[in-house]
Design goal:
Helix content is 14%, strand content 44%. The chain has 269 residues and is mainly β. The strands form 3 sheets. Strands 4, 5, 7, 8, 9, 13, 14, 16 and 17 form a 9-stranded mixed beta sheet that branches. Strands 1, 2, 3 and 6 form a 4-stranded antiparallel beta sheet that branches. The longest helix is centred in the N-terminal third of the chain and has 14 residues, at 3-16. The radius of gyration is 18 Å and the shape is globular.
Length: 269
């Protein structure tokens, strides 16, 4: 095994062996969100808290979809070397808005009761906590399966044009309803949350920035799945949401969660 592959395998095993990390945020962080047309971009997958993350090597056994969608809607795979980090590389030829999309299969984790209840509180999943209480299971550990749906919006060249609100068919999906690259210096960003293609109401949607503890802005989605987040300064932003349901019979778990993220870099004024 070559050294980069061996290193990637070690990193991946470390990540998968840590139940705490499995409940944390997952996002796409390219080397630049504003490449020139044709510029080579490394695509990194990261997992962690508050945009302080560990690298996630490319694991074909977990990947269901890893693609780039161009301004016209054409979809191309993001190539890469298995078990290495960065997870992929690409060069986007056309100016405009492009989206990198990553969708994972299921992973499993078991958490002791106190950690699971704290995680439910942090992610705005109080309804699940209340359901566990009604079942008399608040003090019981929980078996969970989870999957990730991550998007990164890149402004290639001038970053103008359509594509910021394109729905890409993810199980849980965050959709920007305004072009973030038009919010120079900061502003309000309306977003929509979809679950299986339909608006998802009552879910906590959060905006995070590196170096700032907790959510900078947090709003629950309305009956149409919409929320408006206040982004107060330029730089890298992570928009995130988590949805949880009782696990289906084939999952061999108590709960199934779906994690959605959207990253972009708000330009300076």
């Amino acid at each position: 095994m070559r050294f980069p592959q061996r290193l990637g395998a070690v990193l991946l095993l470390g990540i998968l062996a840590s139940p705490a990390l499995l409940a944390h945020n997952f996002w796409i962080e390219p080397t630049t969100f504003t490449p020139a047309p044709g510029q080579r971009v490394a695509v990194r997958l990261r997992v962690g808290q508050e945009l302080q993350g560990d690298p996630v090597p490319r694991d074909p056994s977990l990947m269901k979809r890893f693609v780039a969608v161009g301004p016209g809607g054409a979809e191309v795979p993001v190539p890469g070397v298995p078990n290495t980090e960065p997870a992929g590389f690409l060069a986007l030829p056309s100016p405009g808005l492009s989206t990198i999309v990553y969708e994972s299969g299921r992973s499993a984790v078991e958490l002791e009761a106190a950690k699971f209840e704290n995680y439910l509180k942090e992610e705005g999943l109080e309804a699940i906590s209340a359901r566990r209480a009604r079942q008399g299971k608040s003090a019981a550990p929980a078996r969970e399966v989870f999957s990730r749906s991550a998007k990164a919006l890149l402004a290639v060249g001038n970053g103008a044009g359509p594509g910021f609100d394109r729905v890409l068919g993810l199980r849980l999906e965050l959709v920007a309803e305004k072009n973030p690259y038009a919010l120079a210096g900061g502003g309000d960003l309306p977003v929509r949350l979809l679950y299986e293609g339909k608006p998802l109401a009552g879910t906590l949607i959060m905006a995070l920035q590196r170096g700032r503890p907790g959510a900078v802005s947090a709003v629950r989605s309305d009956s149409r799945g919409r929320a408006t987040l206040k982004l107060d300064r330029p730089g890298l932003w992570l928009i995130k949401a988590v949805h949880m349901i009782p696990a289906p019979a084939d999952a061999n778990a108590d709960w199934e969660s779906f994690w959605a993220s959207l990253t972009f870099a708000l330009p300076a004024r």
